[in-house]
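assembly run, all chains below
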Amino acid sequence: MAEYVSWNPVTQTVRLIWNLRAQAPLAAVKVEALVVMKIIKHCNQTFPTTATGSLVGMDIDNTLEITNSFAFPVVEMPTESHFDNAAPNPAAAAPRAKANAAYQAEMIRMMREVNVDANNVGWYTSANMGNFVNMNVIENQFYYQKEMNERTVALVHDVSRSAQGALSLRAFRLSAKFIEAFKENKFNSEELQKSNLRYQDIFDELPVEIHNSHLITSFIHQLQTPKTAPTDLPASLAALEASPFSQSSVLSPNLDNLSLSIDPFLEKNCDLLLDSIENHNTEVNNYQYYQRVLGREQQKINNWKQKRAQENATRATLKQPPPPRGRVAARLESMLNTRQVEQFSRQVDSFVSSTTGKMFAVKGNLLPGETAK
Amino acid sequence: MADSFLHLARPLGPVSVGTAPTTAPLNVVIQPQAIFSILDHSLRRNADQERVIGTLLGTRSEDGGEVEVRSAFAVGHSEAEDQVEVDMEYHKQMLALHLKANPREVLVGWYATASELNTFSALIQNFYSGQGDGTWPHPAVHLTVSTEPGKDLETRAYISAPVGVTAERAADSAAFIPVPYELRYGEADKSGLEAIANAKDSEERSTTVTSDVEALERAIEEVIAMIDRVSRYVESVIDEEAPASTAMGQFLLNALALAPKVEPADIERDFNNHIQDVLVVSYLANTIRTQMELSNRLATAQLTLGGGEAAKEGGEGQRNNNQRKGGRNQRQDRAPTEEARA
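ok done. output:
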């Protein structure tokens, strides 16, 4: 149980925070505009490589407020490793790297000096088309929830989906059930049966809310109001086009999501789905192989036991260790894979719903008679 | 957005012999997250502080003619009547930490959250533009963002020239020269800024992240509002309530001419093709999901059927068969769907 006093410069109040084990579970995540912009910047700079960073903020009641963030340094990979698919992705593993734990502690210590909420509340990662369900994310989040602080989240910013119009920022936590299983690596069939853990239960998704400070609100209002008063009507077409009003305004709604280019998105999604099927098959084969080897080993052990028993019946029964369970995580992999596929298909669904809407609109517009029929 | 009344050549700094001094104009580009950082810091200042300062980081174009401010971090400082204290140790450590994670960014200058320039500004400016730890030989950019309550936020960018006759005077004086700046945001920032701007009119200053369909709805509503506005204008011109403008008319005509002229049959065909693609992909994606779930369920459920290793093996094999059969089914299913849609 820890107790600490936190001074909130925004509301000018002192808050006494009691950090008890039995707190209400986190229900929502509130992200400051600053963090949104910082994450977008970082993720885009490194795109398509994964970018990761740390989040700081405050945990108030059952809302996690994320008020600042910083990027994790990445150890540059030598160029030849680009050809090696098996090479671990240093950026994706960065949040749980030892060097970065020190970096994070140092950074948070520095931030405390300038009144930033200096509590680590999680980490963020970039994704491409929702491909974030993988071992790296699981292990990072497990590390955070286990080692650092139970009340932490993973924010996932999907760069490709955000480029299509709507910002894609989601918050995830590992469910308690999954943590339990992951801790003891209970992912063989019997255990899964017992715990009834399914792929839907891996993550808990938390609703994300974007929050602006007063200053940012006024800044945004100011951006949208042109400084100069409306002048006389333009004299010519060229003058009209050159006038500041015809430049797209800074924050005018993003009309990118009216675009009708659907093929690239579908193509990319199909590719990802095919990859997932491939993975799934590999996992199934691995699992089968494991089962066969297990069977054989078991057979051998049994034979040997019988032999020993015959040889020396008086001796105590052997304490033969069970065969090494090398691939117990096999089921975990395929579970993750299924979760990933679910992610893809939801993504496709949501895309389809808006696309069909757009397409019918276009058709209705170009063929006005058809829709009336 | 820049103040357009002033155009000055860049002042010459103290240049070592041999390097050609550059007097090309300097343009400052500010990215939104840097401004947001500054505003955040301004909110988090100590109650007794009038203004706060911090370091600006970013990139410089090759000829040094453009400075892009990408991020900022706060530096603690305290001002009294006759002295100013800036935590330089903190600045150095933080800079080192920041550069570790963002190796491509460099120190470009500093910011303050008050428009006022005073002796302390000159002192700090001279530190940031100095040799060694400063930006020398490039000029250091000084950005002021006024955050006075009740007034507009005012942003100004400056660079400085050394003035002063003696060495002591030169250390605490500087001639600040305003330079033009612009706020630039990338394509990628757009979606984020849009989400942030959604919250601007709400009482709690917050908004939720929208789904695809909601975003589409909003975009369409916006377009409809724009069309309404234009047609209202056109109507009032026809009713001779508003002054007519040839340029405006020409512009609207050009916009209307953008509507494509295509054969109805072509539209029909393209439409059907695409809608089929979309629906088939959606259908397949969901089928794959179901298949995988089924496969996983079978893998964990097989033991309840009794038997031992053999049953397991059998289960596996059967499952694979199922899957293969499923694959064929998918393909068979696909054709009828397409026919159905056609």
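Residues 264-341 of chain B form one domain.

Chain B touches chain A through 112 residues (CB under 8 Å).

not gonna interpret more than that til we talk
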